[in-house]
Design goal:
- The termini are far apart.
- The radius of gyration is 26 Å and the shape is globular.
- By secondary structure, it is of the alpha+beta class.
- The strands form eight sheets. The chain has a seven-stranded mixed beta sheet with strand order 8-12-6-19-16-17-18. Strands 2-1-5-3-4 form a five-stranded mixed beta sheet, with helices on both faces.
- The protein is 29% helix and 23% strand.
- Bound molecules: FE2/S2 (inorganic) cluster (FES) (2 copies).
Length: 874
């Protein structure tokens, strides 16, 4: 059924037919071509990405019926006059108030409304006004700066010009900032192609069931449906995966579903609504079977094999150095306990989306937002049974990922639909589908026993780690391996005896998420340090200082550290803040952190880049890693600028398969390390030509190749003369201070970035990570029952909002990394490695309770965030 509506959109009267059940967000995006409104959680109305002004009032349009708009004035960013648009974009650009940018147009429109209503809003009132917005990247710090700057500008103040100085160390404005702020930067779901079809998927409602029959007849009979694909339509290989080919693109009749994100069918139809309707009409007959949900049960002898391609033990890591049992027996002090961490959702704001379109030359053009587009390409080609050259793949820089876009979700199904229909197909997941499908952060049970001598010097660690990797392998084995490798953290531990296990279950798969197992290990480890300090009569900072690694010491994996060990610099950086807080009588927590930069562990890693000089004098900078808001494209340009002396505006970053720049996933804090080295290699060649007197006009059409690799790391446990598990590490110390109610009031985060290539982007990474770490510590959890998440509501997932954020002070220290580009190393993950542990430390000082389970929902700090504490009148 349809109905007529009429409204004024950005000053123009619009009259149109809308479908019953359509949201006004759909109307704006699909019928009016407005792209500044985005779908982050439709129809929940809780992320703020779809904000528009309705008769001057901010409204989330995904939760609004089109009939509500009847007769009203609707304003989006597109309808503001040019001066106001420029002013808003300039405020966010100058403050670096954006990362991936998916949430920003909604926030930018809110900023206009805030500053129109109140020319001098306080920071608190801005945070309050942003309560209906979520940002997963920035930690809100620089967003609040942007709104304050906008208000100042409206009062007659000046917005500083964006930094255009692209040299290393300068806060060069993020490339493409103004367009991103205004919603002009297209994300995958903004793609519109002629005759494009829309896709949808049918997912399993069961964590485990046998598929007896898949009947697509009702779906196919729906008018507008062009194709319903099932396992039977896959031309070549159904099973894919990052490390093991254990994950089928479709579950076939006769096979079992293994989790609630398994795909039974994919539909292509003339519009998204019809595709979704048809996907719901696919009739699947199941024989429901009891799932295995406990990883310990999965590893019992004789347990049922969960995934037919692999035994239930997905990964097993052993690290043994010295004699831990004897050292513990001889220790002056010993602590032990079992810590439990939770499953959490990445909650990148942009749900997964892919577009596949047949090309005139017979190739398939894929637009994806994956964290490793060449891995996507390989897997799609394998499924279709075509050479990889038949797939032209292009990265559309994505709206956040944090590890959650490493595995494919719907790339294969989208490609198959385009292949079968020979038409362009776009498939975008709903928020619920996104949460059901992609891998999560591992819940890990950690049993730790740790000892020290009477001076507080660590003697030994004995540990047992068990992680729930869910239904598919993803990179679960590597996550537990990384947790094991970092189990001793930033400390000298001479005797180690530990084992880590990753197990299959029928829960949602767990894979990469920012920190990659290291956060979990630090939660247990740092608590042991606090407790040992207590027993040894030492201050918490002091015990860390006494044990902090230095050049020449042995890291947890057995690697002797030869360079760039910045942990002591970060400890010194926080010391005055820590001591001042103690003097003030505050509860203050402290934790150190270390995170590898580069995958290491014997993996050969590549960085590849190409600089292509265009006829117009601009240079396209190709590389193989994914820009997902972390600012990698911008810092790669800065390295090219530093090397060539050309202005930043000369360079246009791009990621696609024009060249074979396969570097694997953008993971392990390695994009800057490897991409940067490759760019320097290419830029050095260009520089030589420029130094020889050639101009860019002379060089038009020239391609400069940049290649680098890391081949000297050794596998964990390898019997080699020289253990070098990782090229380099990021180091950090964080201090968390509570107020008198036990709420988190201030976080001081000191981080060693090797060399800070862009201070604005670098501090933004840390601020955003601290926000994620505080949520991890206190409120975030994806609880599942019978393998199904109990909620898909953003509010219930516990991600912190602007009002929940304490003051965050980032201190960047530099301990240059000789193997890094101009001394740099990655900072993408380390920002939240110590956070939960530092919060637990502060809470223990506050109320004497050592919390060993995440999230620490019972704590006053968490209760304050859900509005239950302190009690009124306190
Ligand atoms: S998409 Fe409307 S609030 Fe999230
Ligand atoms: S910048 Fe806010 S979600 Fe990425």
């Amino acid at each position: 059924m349809t109905m007529q509506i009429e409204f004024i959109l950005n000053g123009t009267r619009r009259r149109m037919e809308v479908r019953e059940g359509e949201s006004f967000l759909d109307t704006l995006r699909e019928r009016c071509g407005i792209t500044s409104v985005k779908s982050g959680c439709s129809p929940e109305g809780r992320c703020g990405c779809c904000l528009a002004l309705v008769n001057g009032q901010p409204k989330t349009t995904c939760a609004m019926s089109p009939t509500y708009a009847n007769g009203k004035h609707i304003q989006t960013l597109e309808g503001l006059d040019d001066d106001e648009r420029d002013e808003i974009a300039a405020a966010f650009t100058a403050t670096a108030g954006l990362q991936c940018g998916f949430c920003i147009p909604g926030i930018a429109l809110r900023a206009k409304h805030i500053t129109d209503e109140d020319p001098s809003p306080s920071r608190e009132s801005i945070a309050k006004a942003l309560d209906n917005h979520l940002c997963r990247c920035t930690g809100y710090v620089k967003i609040l700066d942007a709104v304050e700057l906008l208000a100042e500008s409206k009062r007659g103040g000046m917005i500083p010009a964006p930094c255009t100085d692209g040299r290393v160390g300068q806060p060069l404005a993020r490339i493409g900032s103004p367009d991103t702020v205004l919603g002009l930067k297209p994300f995958v779901d903004d793609t519109v192609l002629p005759s494009m079809l829309h896709g949808a998927v049918t997912l399993s409602p069961h964590a485990r069931a046998k598929v007896l029959r898949i009947d697509t007849s009702r779906a196919l009979a729906l008018p507008g449906v062009k194709c319903v694909a099932t396992a039977a339509d896959v031309p070549a290989e159904r099973w894919n995966g990052m490390l093991y080919n254990d994950w089928p693109a479709f579950i076939a009749e006769g096979e079992e579903v293994r989790y609630v994100g398994d795909v039974l069918a994919a539909v292509a139809a003339v519009d998204r609504h019809t595709a979704r309707q048809a996907a719901a009409l696919v009739d699947v007959t199941y024989e429901v079977l009891p799932p295995t949900l406990d990883p310990a049960e999965a590893l019992l002898p004789g347990a049922r094999q969960i995934n037919p391609q692999h035994a239930n033990l997905l990964g097993h890591t052993v690290i043994q150095r010295g004699d831990a049992a004897a050292a513990l027996a001889a220790s002056a002090h010993v602590v032990s306990g079992t810590w439990q961490t939770q499953r959490i959702e990445h909650l990148f704001l942009e749900p997964e989306s892919a577009v596949a379109a047949p090309m005139p030359d017979g190739r398939l053009h894929m637009r994806t937002q994956g964290q490793g587009i060449f891995d996507d390409r390989r897997q799609v080609a394998r499924m279709l049974g075509v050479p990889i050259e038949q797939i032209f793949i292009e990265l559309v820089p994505n709206g956040g990922a944090f590890g959650g876009k490493e595995d494919m979700t719907i790339q294969a199904q989208t490609a198959l639909l385009a292949h079968l229909t020979q038409a362009p197909v776009k498939l975008t997941l709903s928020r619920e589908e996104s949460i059901r499908m992609h891998p999560k952060r591992h819940p890990i049970t950690l049993q730790y026993t740790m000892g020290c001598d009477k001076e507080g010097r660590l003697t030994a660690l004995k540990a047992h780690l068990l992680g729930d990797s869910g239904a598919y392998g993803s990179v679960g084995a590597k996550v537990l391996e990384r947790a094991a490798g970092h189990a001793c953290g930033a400390y000298r531990v001479p005797n180690v005896d530990l084992e880590a296990f990753a197990a299959y279950t029928n829960n949602p798969p767990c894979g990469a998420m920012r920190g990659f197992g290291v956060n979990q290990a630090h939660f247990a480890l740092e608590a042991c340090l606090d407790e040992l300090a207590k027993k040894a009569g030492l201050d918490r900072w002091e015990i860390r200082w006494r044990n902090a690694l230095e050049v020449g010491d042995t890291f947890g994996t057995g690697q002797v550290l030869e360079k760039s060990v910045g942990i002591r610099k970060t400890l010194l950086a926080v010391k005055p803040h820590y001591e001042a807080a103690l003097r003030e009588g505050r509860a203050v927590g402290i934790a150190c952190g270390v995170k590898n930069s580069g995958i290491g562990n014997g993996v050969v890693e590549y960085g590849k880049a190409r600089l292509v000089v265009g006829e117009d004098g601009r240079i396209t900078l190709y590389n193989g890693f994914t820009e997902m808001g972390q600012g990698m494209s911008t810092v790669l340009v800065q390295l090219a600028v530093e090397s060539t002396g050309l202005p930043a505006s000369t360079f246009v970053p791009k990621v696609d398969s024009t060249f074979n720049l396969d570097c694997g996933q953008t993971t392990g804090s390695r994009g800057t390390l490897l991409g940067g080295r490759a760019v320097l290699d290419a830029a050095g060649k260009l520089r030589r030509d420029l130094d020889a007197g050639r101009t860019l006009a002379d060089l038009a059409g020239t391609v400069y190749e940049g290649e680098t690799s890391i081949r000297d790391t050794t596998a964990l446990g390898a019997k080699v003369d020289k253990i070098k598990t990782h090229t380099t590490f990021g180091w950090a110390t964080q201090v968390v201070m509570l107020d008198t109610f036990g709420r988190v009031d201030r976080v001081v985060a000191a981080h060693d970035a090797g060399r800070v290539l862009n201070p604005a982007l670098c501090s933004g990474q840390i601020e955003g990570a601290v926000q994620m770490g505080l949520g991890y510590a206190l409120t975030e959890e994806l609880r599942c029952e019978d393998g199904m998440p109990v909620t898909f509501k953003l509010r219930d997932l516990g991600v912190l909002r602007a009002q929940d954020m304490p003051t965050v002070e980032v201190i960047l220290v530099e301990d240059p990394e000789p193997e890094g580009p101009m001394g740099a190393k990655g900072v993408g993950e380390i920002g939240l490695v110590p956070t939960a542990a530092a919060v637990a430390s502060a809470l223990e000082m506050f109320d004497g309770k050592r919390r060993m389970t995440l999230p620490m929902k019972d704590s006053p700090a968490a209760q304050a965030m859900v509005g239950c504490y302190p009690p009124e009148g306190a």
